[in-house]
């Protein structure tokens, strides 16, 4: 486990384990931070290749640990503080592995997120086996296409603002602002996402398709 994520997982439970006997709380309460630590380890191991999820998980763990500590010491009111701390540490861990983006990341198993320009929260996630739109209006419906189904990926220029449908997901649309964008051919149409990193996304998808093809051919 990465050192920053280890701190996210174990800092709160360690504080809880230390304060429980000091404050003469029932020792059965020691099971709570122990369980939270175990849950954190299991979660981050299962999501170790999906760094875009780390900050939310860090905030949730901080919130739960803070709730336990607040039950022990209401005057400390550490819940919000630990939630913010968990988010911050996990966000730093995410930035450490993703920023700046380098071509070498294409050879890693990490799911690489690309923020859409002008569309708050909307991201294109490029995993080793699929691409996904998430966030924004796509929180409940996450359009996903296996890499084997992805066709042409290229950078294009958008001349004027437009709201375009996302094929295959009903009425969901993406607002594309003037400037560079990436066009991705998928069944049964195409995704157009406003971003200044269309060329990097095209190279990333091409490399991961190449790696998947080599693996499938063995």
Characterize the structure shown:
With about 220 residues, the chain is α+β, with helices and mostly antiparallel strands. The protein has two domains: about 100 residues; about 110 residues, PH-domain like (Roll). The protein is about 45% helix and about 20% strand. It is built from five helices and nine strands. A hairpin with a 3-residue loop joins strand 2 and strand 3. Helix 1 runs antiparallel to helix 2, helix 1 runs parallel beside helix 3 and helix 3 packs antiparallel against helix 4. The longest helix is centred in the N-terminal third of the chain and has 20 residues. The chain is elongated, with a radius of gyration of 21 Å. The C terminus is likely disordered.
Q: Give the structural class.
A: alpha+beta
Q: Can you name the CATH architecture of the largest domain?
A: Roll
Helix residue percentage: 40-55%
Helical segment count: 5
Topology as a string of helices (H) and strands (E) = HHHHEEEEEEEEEH
Task: Give Rg in angstroms.
Answer: 21 Å
Spatially, the strands of the biggest sheet line up as 1-2-3-4
The figure for the number of domains is: 2
Percent of sequence in beta strands: 15-25%
Tell me the number of strands.
9
Give me the CATH superfamily of the largest domain.
Pleckstrin-homology domain (PH domain)/Phosphotyrosine-binding domain (PTB)
pLDDT under 50 segments (min length 5)?
214-218
Note the gap between the termini: 30 Å
Overall pLDDT confidence: 87
The biggest beta sheet, please? Answer: 4 strands, antiparallel
- Shape verdict: elongated
Assigned CATH class of the largest domain: Mainly Beta
CATH fold descriptor of the largest domain: PH-domain like
């Amino acid at each position: 486990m990465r050192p920053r994520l280890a701190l996210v997982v174990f800092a709160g439970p360690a504080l809880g384990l230390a304060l429980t006997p000091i404050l003469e709380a029932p020792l059965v309460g020691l099971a709570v931070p122990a369980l939270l630590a175990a849950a954190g380890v299991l979660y981050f191991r299962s999501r170790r290749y999906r760094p875009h999820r780390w900050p939310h998980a860090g905030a949730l763990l901080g919130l739960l640990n803070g709730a336990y500590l607040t039950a022990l010491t209401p005057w400390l009111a550490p819940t919000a503080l630990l939630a913010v701390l968990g988010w911050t540490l996990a966000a730093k861990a995410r930035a450490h592995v993703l920023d700046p983006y380098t071509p070498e990341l294409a050879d890693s198993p990490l799911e690489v997120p690309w923020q859409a320009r002008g569309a708050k929260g909307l991201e294109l996630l490029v995993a080793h086996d699929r691409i996904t739109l998430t966030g924004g209006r796509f929180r409940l419906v996450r359009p996903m296409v296996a890499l084997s189904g992805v066709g042409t990926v290229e950078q294009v220029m958008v001349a004027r603002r437009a709201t375009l449908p996302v094929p295959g997901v009903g009425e969901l649309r993406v607002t594309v602002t003037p400037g560079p964008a990436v066009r991705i051919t998928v069944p049964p149409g195409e995704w157009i996402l406003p971003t200044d990193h269309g060329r990097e996304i095209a190279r990333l998808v091409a490399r991961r398709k190449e790696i998947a093809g080599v693996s499938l051919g063995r």
